[in-house]
Every structure is written in structure tokens, then in C-alpha cells.
């Protein structure tokens, strides 16, 4: 894995939907990367975000579950494109799955009833920050990634396969690996339309 600055990672990060295995990427390296991601901030420091890392055979199993569930809802005549897209995720090194711990959210609502209605929104902000931090760390390491949302379609099968606590609610998946496609060109709004300097 290579490294780049955080500024470069922010500017160069793109959705890479076709990845392949990088033989130099190890589970230990990914664990170290995720140990940095968990420092992402959350409202009230509630830390309701949860992650699960699957690699190698477990990654293939995950994307087989996605394929199996999609076959039930995608018309057969349209499935070739879906199958090709899923191969782009399955062929990578692994996937980080993101969850929110509903037990933590309920505890926060009880601890701070004045803000009870806000914790759901705050948890989505928190998981967004956690996902972005993880994505930037993957980009910083020279790996390709994208954010996918095959939940709730796969929730039950994933929970059963990996014994996920019932309080964990699946939010997103980030498949990662060596980049196997060029990032698409991206247009940005003019800075002055987005940021107001006083």
C-alpha cells in the first residue's frame, strides 16, 4: 500500500466501482487502518457506529449474498449488468460494512431526553463521518473504494452469516481493493457558489 497526504486524499478520492485484489494488502494492515477510522467524531461522543471487516472468502460470500438477494428482485433480462457490477466489488480485497448500534441510540435518548428526537439524525451524521474517514484512509493507502447500499435487502442474511448483534442496523458497505478502472471526471460547483466568506 502506498501513502499520500490527507489533502491529496480529499481531492483525489473518487468512487471506484471496479476493484481487484492487491496481493500486498493484509488483514493486519486493514485492522490498523480501521483503528484510525474509529477516531471519527460523533455527537455527544456517543460512538454509535459499528464496523465489520470481511476479506477473502468472506468477502466473496458477502457479494454472493447480495447477488442471491438481487436475483429475487431484478428482472432476469437485466441481470447481466447487475452481475458485472457485483463482480467489481467481489473481486477486491474486502468490504467494510457499517452499522449503527440502536441500543446505544436508545441509551442516549434516555440519558438526554431533551435531545431525544435529534439522536437519529446525529447518528446518520456520525456514520457519514465514519464512512468518509474510512474512505479517505483507503484513498490515502492508494486503494480504490466506493460506498454501496444493499441494505435492507441483505440485512437478515448478513446478520445470520456473521452473527451480528440484533441491535446493529446495517447502513452501508465499502468494497475496496486495487483500482481496476479510471475514475470518472467530476465537475465541481464554483467555490463562491458553495462557500460564503464574510
UniProtKB/TrEMBL annotation:
Pfam family, one: Nitroreductase
Keyword presence, Oxidoreductase: yes
Domain named Nitroreductase: residues: 10-177
GO biological process annotation, one example: cellular response to oxidative stress
Main subcellular location: cytoplasm
InterPro entries: Frm2/Hbn1, Nitroreductase, Nitroreductase-like
Keyword rRNA-binding: no
PANTHER family noted in UniProt: FATTY ACID REPRESSION MUTANT PROTEIN 2-RELATED
GO CC terms, sorted: cytoplasm
Superkingdom, natural source: Bacteria
Protein name listed in UniProt: Nitroreductase family protein
Keywords: Cytoplasm, Oxidoreductase
Location of the protein in the cell: Cytoplasm
Signal peptide coordinates: none
GO molecular function terms attached to this record: oxidoreductase activity
Coiled-coil spans in chain: none
Gene3D superfamilies (UniProt xref): NADH Oxidase
Amino acid at each position: 500500500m502506498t501513502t499520500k497526504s490527507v489533502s491529496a486524499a480529499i481531492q483525489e478520492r473518487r468512487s471506484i466501482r471496479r476493484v481487484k485484489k492487491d496481493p500486498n494488502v493484509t488483514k493486519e494492515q486493514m485492522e490498523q487502518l480501521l483503528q484510525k477510522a474509529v477516531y471519527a467524531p460523533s455527537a455527544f461522543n456517543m460512538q454509535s457506529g459499528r464496523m465489520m471487516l470481511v476479506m477473502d472468502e468472506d468477502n466473496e460470500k458477502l457479494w454472493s449474498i447480495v447477488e442471491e438477494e438481487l436475483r429475487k428482485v431484478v428482472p432476469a433480462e437485466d441481470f447481466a449488468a447487475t452481475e458485472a457490477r457485483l463482480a467489481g466489488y467481489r473481486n477486491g480485497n474486502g468490504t467494510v460494512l457499517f452499522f449503527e448500534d440502536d441500543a446505544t441510540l436508545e441509551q442516549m435518548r434516555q440519558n438526554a431526553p431533551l435531545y431525544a428526537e435529534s439522536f437519529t439524525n446525529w447518528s446518520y451524521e456520525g456514520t457519514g463521518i465514519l464512512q468518509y474517514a474510512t474512505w479517505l484512509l483507503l484513498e490515502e493507502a492508494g486503494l480504490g473504494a466506493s460506498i454501496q447500499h444493499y441494505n435492507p435487502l441483505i440485512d437478515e442474511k448478513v446478520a445470520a452469516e456473521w452473527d451480528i448483534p440484533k441491535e446493529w442496523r446495517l447502513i452501508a458497505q465499502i468494497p475496496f481493493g486495487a483500482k481496476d478502472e479510471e475514475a470518472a471526471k467530476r465537475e465541481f460547483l464554483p467555490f463562491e457558489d458553495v462557500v460564503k466568506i464574510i
